[in-house]
């Protein structure tokens, strides 16, 4: 909407004139054009809907979302919430959405980290390092993601079977069944400790804000870390001890066909995660590099001349300015990563597209299936956009 | 800088005689020192990286060239399989030797393969000619029209003594090039209209354009392709139906249109207000103003991001794999369905990657150079 | 100064695009006519049969290195084409995926779907489709690595099982697992070659699909003896060519092309001797089938020598089977003629 406000045609306030019903009147023309175009669009949509209704009737395809409450009967390998083939389609689709979010969120975090490292490596004074980073970026960006995913999945399948699993550290097994890690035997106390940690994060943030305000008043910096340590580590520890301090760890072990116990990262998820991370990191690296290069060198020099430490220069002077350049394109990379996670369907990770796809295949209700896929992605995309726009406006340059 | 003479004497370079004080700020040795060994940390990084590069490069060369099998007779792939599981594994390029024509041209009649081959060359030549600024004239439009017509004639045939080849038999690289090129060619005018509509003063049109752009950009291409493949036939009246490639093409156009519209809008926004005001002051109508003043300048600004978006589509056309259209990637995957050739996916994927890489790399290099060239007036 | 050429460029590009748009319109109009009263008449008018096949399944439908479609299902397309036109090559093959196959058929994009589709009640009725006989009796089974020592499917409790999503296979598997209290972890991959490579690499303990598919996969492995197909068959999978409602005459033709292929094997008519049989055989039913008398072809709406054309093009059912399915390790089993024990392939009388 902001662009319309800056549009020069809106800056003039047109003089009040009476509308004359002639073609020469600009406003009449505008109204006629709009009515015509909107009418045409509605007409086309009406035509399509009528065709669709007719076709659905002729082909006796059921409509509506009633199937959501029917038994799905489709097996799902990875689910964050309880799921059996006897569950409903609604639950199956919810599992799919959660799986999509699982890969998107972790992918975004990893891609940002890797991308930043590579972007900085490209600016390194070490020729070899910067060249390797450059070659990486070119290679990754010029090959289709789908091809890369298939490639990674093929590579992961080449790992040994569960009986000959690689065992680099005790309790960690890497095989073609995925990565097996020991994991806490989850108790109620762990949930409480996690909750305490989240509360600690929030409290730390409030504390840091209050200290910053005080610093603004008298100019003396105050250390935040002692309180932060207490809130972030101490508080969860105390809560955990109060809960009986359970320490049982669930170790993976080979039983029957597969490993039992512990935490599993399946090859499908792993391949998708590696593919999405490395691919998006190639783009993020370029964004980070451009962002850092966009900060004029004079800023570094001026800050150093003021006697600031180089870590302070980076944190307080360079990064805030670079972020302004970095955040908008980064938003679209996050959106791309989320949308690209739909390629999971090619390598058998059961995300929302894969499950909705199977659903529409079993029920024959293509329109509903695709509508669900689109609605889910639109919701995710809009949420990311809103969050990043809010963040962007926070760090934006406040002019005049 | 005091350690420079010390280091060079260690390296035993004769030029570093004590009589040459500001030794070596140029030349290979100095370059090495400045770029690879400037500090102990840098040296460590260099050495570690060099070790890994050498190690993996050697095993890759072993696998890809030294131990590789380049061809086998009569689909007898036992040697390849033995090699794959041996202590010194090697690539089985025989799969490419045997299947390269299928991967490149799909199910196109075998004896007519020169036609799709020529089509690929024509497309490539078209890209090259369009990329050269000295050909940026209206005659280029004629060249495009003639080339695309020639491509249509070559692919379909049925005239000039060429046999007719139905669209179902097309496949491989030409499909990838057709989807990408036609996708851009049709999406571009659509994008211009939508970008103008999004900045229009008419609220209804603005809302329509915003809804279109945000809706398309909010969903993955796959969902549009699914829509084209399973939903689109339901939209049409009975009896009328459009073939699968064309439906996928429409999905690609709609998708590309939304993204290009945002690129064009970026160009429109970057123009100084004075240009709009000056044009209005001259009394030009909306279309005169847009056509003669605004668009020529705005489009010039967005050529580099346009090329980058095109690279994106070029890669994204590989997604038609999921709806079963025989593009380059699908053809490659189908080539390894035959029992004798199952299990040589890595070789096929590498070969296909090389083709995609050549096209995308050339385009991305071109866009970088063009950007530098167009921005030259700014670097005073 | 730079404005002039740039403006011309813009309009040049727009012009090019407009011309291209006009040029491509005929492409849109190329769409095959569908629906309407008679599919058979539409095929005759068009001069080609449009046949939906798999995107690539060894033995059934798969393009060879020269891009020519080959396989069991493909032979049925060729046979129908030969019956209508006397020429087996007037076929356009449209590769279809598991999702798009029914839409393609319903919308008229293809005339017939020869693509291992299981005959089920809901497909026959609510999807508005018709089955043109059963050309392949199949059932769902499991394949495991011999080294696991598994002897029956019930021992698969706790196993990871590879399965293709969105097919009856997937639903059969869950039904069976629930009925037998078997817990399993699924690995579902849409593309078949990807799924098979997942099983072969050991990602899954077992691979489930139709037994014919298992046999084909097994024979294509470097060492087939390392894989065992379990004796349990958990479902019935009658596969056949699929048509849409609307033209019973075309459905009749497809059905009788299949019966002709089966009957030809029964009567000992082969690709090699069909011309001679048509001329000399004295059995009345053979004479009727091969068009010497009775006018059966006319009743079907095709030339009387239709069956001769079919058999000359593809051979009889047994020959097709031997050409495409036996090399990949599929035995006749239930698909043997009804005259052999256990065989179920049975042709209706040509009268």
From TrEMBL, chain A:
<feature type="transmembrane region" description="Helical">
    <location>
        <begin position="229"/>
        <end position="249"/>
    </location>
</feature>
<feature type="transmembrane region" description="Helical">
    <location>
        <begin position="30"/>
        <end position="49"/>
    </location>
</feature>
<dbReference type="InterPro" id="IPR043429">
    <property type="entry name" value="ArtM/GltK/GlnP/TcyL/YhdX-like"/>
</dbReference>
<dbReference type="InterPro" id="IPR035906">
    <property type="entry name" value="MetI-like_sf"/>
</dbReference>
<keyword id="KW-1133">Transmembrane helix</keyword>
<dbReference type="GO" id="GO:0043190">
    <property type="term" value="C:ATP-binding cassette (ABC) transporter complex"/>
</dbReference>
<feature type="transmembrane region" description="Helical">
    <location>
        <begin position="189"/>
        <end position="208"/>
    </location>
</feature>
<dbReference type="GO" id="GO:0022857">
    <property type="term" value="F:transmembrane transporter activity"/>
</dbReference>
<dbReference type="GO" id="GO:0006865">
    <property type="term" value="P:amino acid transport"/>
</dbReference>
<feature type="transmembrane region" description="Helical">
    <location>
        <begin position="269"/>
        <end position="288"/>
    </location>
</feature>
<feature type="transmembrane region" description="Helical">
    <location>
        <begin position="370"/>
        <end position="391"/>
    </location>
</feature>
<keyword id="KW-1003">Cell membrane</keyword>
<comment type="similarity">
    <text>Belongs to the binding-protein-dependent transport system permease family. HisMQ subfamily.</text>
</comment>
<keyword id="KW-0029">Amino-acid transport</keyword>
<keyword id="KW-0813">Transport</keyword>
Automatic annotation (TrEMBL), chain B:
<keyword id="KW-0472">Membrane</keyword>
<feature type="transmembrane region" description="Helical">
    <location>
        <begin position="248"/>
        <end position="268"/>
    </location>
</feature>
<keyword id="KW-1133">Transmembrane helix</keyword>
<comment type="similarity">
    <text>Belongs to the binding-protein-dependent transport system permease family. HisMQ subfamily.</text>
</comment>
<dbReference type="GO" id="GO:0043190">
    <property type="term" value="C:ATP-binding cassette (ABC) transporter complex"/>
</dbReference>
<dbReference type="InterPro" id="IPR000515">
    <property type="entry name" value="MetI-like"/>
</dbReference>
<dbReference type="InterPro" id="IPR010065">
    <property type="entry name" value="AA_ABC_transptr_permease_3TM"/>
</dbReference>
<dbReference type="Pfam" id="PF00528">
    <property type="entry name" value="BPD_transp_1"/>
</dbReference>
<feature type="transmembrane region" description="Helical">
    <location>
        <begin position="40"/>
        <end position="58"/>
    </location>
</feature>
<feature type="transmembrane region" description="Helical">
    <location>
        <begin position="113"/>
        <end position="129"/>
    </location>
</feature>
<feature type="transmembrane region" description="Helical">
    <location>
        <begin position="171"/>
        <end position="196"/>
    </location>
</feature>
<protein>
    <submittedName>
        <fullName>General L-amino acid transport system permease protein</fullName>
    </submittedName>
</protein>
<dbReference type="InterPro" id="IPR035906">
    <property type="entry name" value="MetI-like_sf"/>
</dbReference>
<feature type="transmembrane region" description="Helical">
    <location>
        <begin position="208"/>
        <end position="236"/>
    </location>
</feature>
<feature type="transmembrane region" description="Helical">
    <location>
        <begin position="141"/>
        <end position="165"/>
    </location>
</feature>
UniProtKB/TrEMBL annotation, chain C:
<dbReference type="Pfam" id="PF00497">
    <property type="entry name" value="SBP_bac_3"/>
</dbReference>
<feature type="signal peptide">
    <location>
        <begin position="1"/>
        <end position="33"/>
    </location>
</feature>
<keyword id="KW-0732">Signal</keyword>
<comment type="similarity">
    <text>Belongs to the bacterial solute-binding protein 3 family.</text>
</comment>
<protein>
    <submittedName>
        <fullName>General L-amino acid transport system substrate-binding protein</fullName>
    </submittedName>
</protein>
<keyword id="KW-0813">Transport</keyword>
<dbReference type="InterPro" id="IPR001638">
    <property type="entry name" value="Solute-binding_3/MltF_N"/>
</dbReference>
<dbReference type="GO" id="GO:0006865">
    <property type="term" value="P:amino acid transport"/>
</dbReference>
<dbReference type="InterPro" id="IPR051455">
    <property type="entry name" value="Bact_solute-bind_prot3"/>
</dbReference>
<feature type="domain" description="Solute-binding protein family 3/N-terminal">
    <location>
        <begin position="48"/>
        <end position="277"/>
    </location>
</feature>
